[in-house]
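ZP: hey, is the magnesium ion complex queued? I don't see it on the tracker
AM: it wasn't, my bad. submitting now with these inputs:
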Amino acid sequence: MQTEEIFSLTGVRFSYARPPAPPAWALDGLDLTISRNEALAVLGANGSGKSTLLRLLDALLYPVAGEILAFGQRLCEAAMAEEGFARRFRQQVGLVMQNSDAQLFNPTVLEEVAFGPLQLGLPDSEVLRRSETIFELLQIGHLRHRSPDCLSAGEKKRVAVACILATSPDVLLLDEPTAGLDPRSREALLDLLVDRRDAGQTIVLATQDLELVRELAHRAVVLGEDHRLAASGPANEIVGDRELLRAANLVGQERRPRYTITAPASPPGNPCGRL
Ligand SMILES: Nc1ncnc2c1ncn2[C@@H]1O[C@H](COP(=O)(O)OP(=O)(O)OP(=O)(O)O)[C@@H](O)[C@H]1O
Ligand SMILES: [Mg+2]
């Protein structure tokens, strides 16, 4: 069986600096293919280019050099200016941003989650059904009448994930989806993503959460601090390669704490020191 390439990147370079400023490469010469039904993790230290890669895959940015093919067509400003292509692409690809504040703008959580499905032209009854299903799966139903502005960072992240899942894109791009989530929320999200993966959803995930990579991803790529591809391979092999992870600044050196705090003696009658 032939695997279908969803994205194909050849020699992709990107710099946020624009001429006459000299380029400062956020990604430098990236070759990468992403296939349908694949769960791919993008690992890398802070500033290595993970979010930039996801923004490029979502056509929020375009390469300065090299090219990206999406569904066999070159992803560039001209293609996204074609209404038909842009609409299809936005239906097929959904990005959960690292910074939820950049994604959320509706007055209530319910309107936020319903926004995408309504834009797709789905009937109200289907929009409501999808919203309620997602609320239950991500355990955020109690937030439905709250303003996204007034939520905690972890609550915002769960709402941001819900918004994209509600549109059922073919390709799910997730930028640090578990960052800042408490254990129960993380488990709920992980269960949901594993189900989606097993149902054949294509997932691209930028993260430093090695456990998440181990549980969810088929394959992992590592971006080095030089913004180049440092490694690519089966997720469990990449996550098990301590030397590679240390070189890419994804795990630290073994370190003894520099300061130890000595607890004061417990008062009489309170041997455990608990209040
Ligand atoms: N809006 C921007 N303007 C200028 N430079 C930027 C901008 N966003 C990112 N950069 C730079 O591009 C490079 C890659 O950043 P990016 O956000 O893609 O890294 P990252 O791997 O997602 O990091 P993190 O783990 O901190 O999320 C970094 O050198 C960063 O300083
Ligand atoms: Mg990032």
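AM: back. The mean pLDDT is 93.
ZP: great, adding it to the tracker
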